[in-house]
Design a protein that fits this description.
The complex is a heterodimer of chains A (313) and B (207). Chain A has 313 residues and is mostly helical. Chain A is built from 16 helices and three strands. Helix content of chain A is 53%, strand content 3%. In chain B, helix 4 packs antiparallel against helix 6 (73-102) and helix 7 packs antiparallel against helix 9.
C-alpha cells in the first residue's frame, strides 16, 4: 500500500470538541425545508402545457402535412434514424464501434405503417379513404414509390385552405387522399389517440407520438422561442427563468464547441467524453497526479485554517 | 447449544462485525475532532436534508399521480417544493463534492467513501433526468425528444427508452430513488465508521 500523503493519514489523536449530530441534523432539515418553501412560494415552478398533434396540425397544418409526407416517403428523421427504431442507417459510431447498431432495432418503428397506414385504418370507414387504402395496398412497391415521388415533387407548392391540403399533381394515386385524411384525423385529435392506443386500452408509452412530433418543425420552433435548442444550452434548461438541470452544464458545454457543435457524430462522442470524465472522478483516489492536486493547490488550508492557525501558535 | 456453534452463526458474525465497525459512539457521536470547524462541513448535512425534502415532496406527488400537479394549485405548489429541493440538493452536493476533493477526503482508507459519493452523484443526475422527462408537459416532451439521441447513440436506448413515459416514471419513483437512498445510507455509514478525514500533516506538506 502506498505511503503517499495523498493516500495515507495518521488517525487523529488530538483534541475533540462537543458535537450533537441529532441537533445538527434537525436544524439543517428545518432550515432546508423553510428555504424550499420560501423558494417555492416566491418562484413557483414552470409548467408549459404539453403540445398535442391536434394543436400542431391546427396551428401549422402545412408543416404537419409535410411531416406526414416525410414519414410516407422515408425522409423523416425517424424514417432515417437507424437503431433502435429501424435499420435505415448505421447510426453514430465511436471509432469503429456502432454501439446502437449492434443492439439492433429493438423498438421497431415503421413510419409508413405506424404513422400513416395504421392510424388511417383505425378510422371509421369512409368510401373515399377505403378506396384510397385499397388502391395503396393493391399496388406494387414501384407503383407506390412513383405515387409518393410525384406527390413529393409537387409538395413544394403545398397549400392548406378550407381544411384541405392541396398539392398540384394528378399522378399521385391515393396519396393526396391519405395525407388529407391524416390531416383531418390529426386536426380532430384522433391521431393523438390512435398513436398511443395502438397496443391496447391502457398505455403509458408515448414513443410514437413523440417521434412524430419531433420529426416536424413545430415542436422545435416552440423550443427555439423558449431558448431550449441544443445550440442554446437546451439540454440543461427548462421553460421560463428557472435553473433547470444546471448540473448538466459540462455535458451541454461540449455541444456548443467544435468539433461537436457541427458533428453528426456528436452525441456518441460527447457521451464517451462524459463517461471518461465520470470514471476519472470516480477513481480520483487511485490516480497519481489527480489525487495530488489538493495537496499541491493547498486549498485545504482555507478549509482547515483554524487547525493550522492553532498548530502554528 | 454450544457457544461455539452460536458464534459461527451468520447472524452472530454479522452483529459482531457491525458492532465492531460501527459502535454506538461512532454511529451517534457526541464529540468530533477539533479540526471539524468549517462552513464546508455544512454542505454534507444540507445535501442529506434536501434529499429528505425531495423524497417527502415526491411522496405527496406520488399519492395523487403524475397528472395531479397540472390541475391543482396545491399540486403545483408541491411540485415547486420538489423542484426547489432538488436544486438545493444538487447545489449542496456539488459544493460538498468539491470540498471533499480539496480535503483529499479519500485518505486514510476512505477511498470507498469517495467512490460511493461519486456514484450517488451520478445516480442522482439520472434520477433528476427521469423526473424531468416524466413531468407530462412541454419540458418533458422537448427534453425527452432531445435526450433520446444521446442515449440511443450509446446503445442504451434499446432498454432505456426516454420516450416511454411509463418506463421513465418507474425509474424515477422506484428504481433510481431506491438506489440513491441506499447509496447515501452506505456513504453516511462509511463516514461514521471511518470518521472525518484529518488535515494534511505539516510534515507531509513539507514533502
Amino acid at each position: 500500500m502506498s505511503d503517499s500523503p495523498d493516500v495515507t493519514v495518521a488517525p487523529w489523536t488530538g483534541p475533540q470538541r462537543p458535537y450533537d449530530i441529532i441537533k445538527e441534523g434537525t436544524i439543517a432539515f428545518l432550515v432546508v425545508a423553510i428555504l424550499t418553501i420560501g423558494l417555492a412560494v416566491v418562484f413557483s415552478s414552470p409548467d408549459d402545457p404539453q403540445v398535442t398533434i391536434q394543436q400542431w396540425s391546427n396551428r401549422a397544418p402545412v408543416d404537419f402535412a409535410q411531416t406526414a409526407l416525410a414519414e410516407l416517403n422515408g425522409t423523416s428523421g425517424t424514417a432515417q434514424y437507424g437503431a433502435p427504431y429501424n435499420t435505415a442507417s448505421s447510426g453514430q459510431h465511436l471509432g469503429p464501434f456502432t454501439l446502437a447498431k449492434w443492439l439492433g432495432a429493438t423498438i421497431p418503428v415503421n413510419t409508413v405503417r405506424d404513422f400513416v397506414l395504421s392510424p388511417l385504418e383505425s378510422q371509421p370507414p369512409s368510401p373515399t379513404l377505403s378506396a384510397a387504402l385499397a388502391q395503396w395496398k393493391g399496388a406494387g412497391a414501384s407503383q407506390r414509390t412513383a405515387w409518393v415521388d410525384a406527390y413529393t415533387k409537387a409538395s413544394t407548392k403545398m397549400t392548406f385552405a378550407h381544411g384541405t391540403v392541396s398539392v398540384p399533381t394528378t399522378s399521385a394515386g391515393p396519396v393526396p387522399v391519405m395525407i388529407n385524411s391524416l390531416e383531418q384525423m390529426a386536426r380532430s385529435g384522433a391521431l393523438d389517440q390512435a398513436l398511443v392506443t395502438r397496443n391496447g386500452f391502457y398505455t403509458s408509452n408515448f414513443t410514437l407520438p413523440l417521434l412524430f412530433l419531433a420529426d416536424g418543425s413545430y415542436l422545435g420552433d416552440l423550443a427555439q422561442q423558449r431558448h431550449l435548442l441544443g445550440t442554446q444550452w437546451g439540454m440543461m434548461n427548462e421553460t421560463g427563468n428557472y435553473p433547470g438541470q444546471a448540473w448538466l452544464w459540462l455535458y451541454t458545454f461540449w455541444y456548443q464547441v467544435p468539433p461537436f457543435s457541427s458533428s453528426t457524430n456528436a452525441d456518441v462522442l460527447v457521451w464517451a467524453i462524459m463517461m471518461l470524465l465520470s470514471l476519472l472522478l470516480l477513481l480520483v483516489p487511485f490516480i497519481p497526479g489527480l489525487r495530488s492536486i489538493p495537496r499541491w493547490t493547498r486549498v485545504y488550508r482555507l478549509i482547515w485554517r483554524d487547525h493550522y492557525r492553532t498548530q502554528s501558535a | 447449544m454450544s457457544s461455539t456453534e452460536i458464534d459461527r452463526q451468520w447472524t452472530t458474525r454479522l452483529r459482531h462485525r457491525v458492532a465492531h465497525r460501527l459502535p454506538p459512539e461512532k454511529m451517534l457521536p457526541d464529540t468530533q475532532p477539533a479540526y471539524v470547524a468549517s462552513w464546508i462541513y455544512v454542505f454534507g448535512v444540507t445535501t442529506l436534508s434536501a434529499l429528505a425534502v425531495v423524497i417527502l415532496s415526491g411522496f405527496i406527488l406520488a399519492l395523487k399521480g403524475p397528472q395531479w400537479w397540472h390541475a391543482s394549485g396545491i399540486g403545483h405548489f408541491v411540485n415547486s417544493l420538489h423542484l426547489w429541493s432538488v436544486e438545493i440538493f444538487f447545489f449542496a452536493m456539488v459544493i460538498h463534492l468539491w470540498g471533499k476533493y480539496f480535503m483529499a477526503a479519500w485518505r486514510g482508507g476512505r477511498s470507498l467513501t469517495w467512490v460511493t459519493g461519486v456514484v450517488t452523484f451520478l445516480v442522482s443526475i439520472a434520477t433528476a433526468f427521469t423526473g424531468y422527462v416524466s413531468q407530462t408537459n412541454f419540458d418533458s416532451q422537448w427534453i425527452s425528444t432531445q435526450a433520446k439521441d444521446g442515449i440511443n447513440s450509446t446503445g442504451a436506448g434499446s432498454f432505456f427508452n426516454v420516450l416511454n413515459f411509463g418506463q421513465m416514471l418507474m425509474w424515477h419513483i422506484v428504481l433510481l430513488p431506491l438506489a440513491a437512498v441506499v447509496l447515501t445510507a452506505v456513504h453516511v455509514l462509511m463516514v461514521r465508521a471511518k470518521g472525518v478525514v484529518p488535515p494534511f500533516e505539516e510534515r507531509e506538506e513539507a514533502r
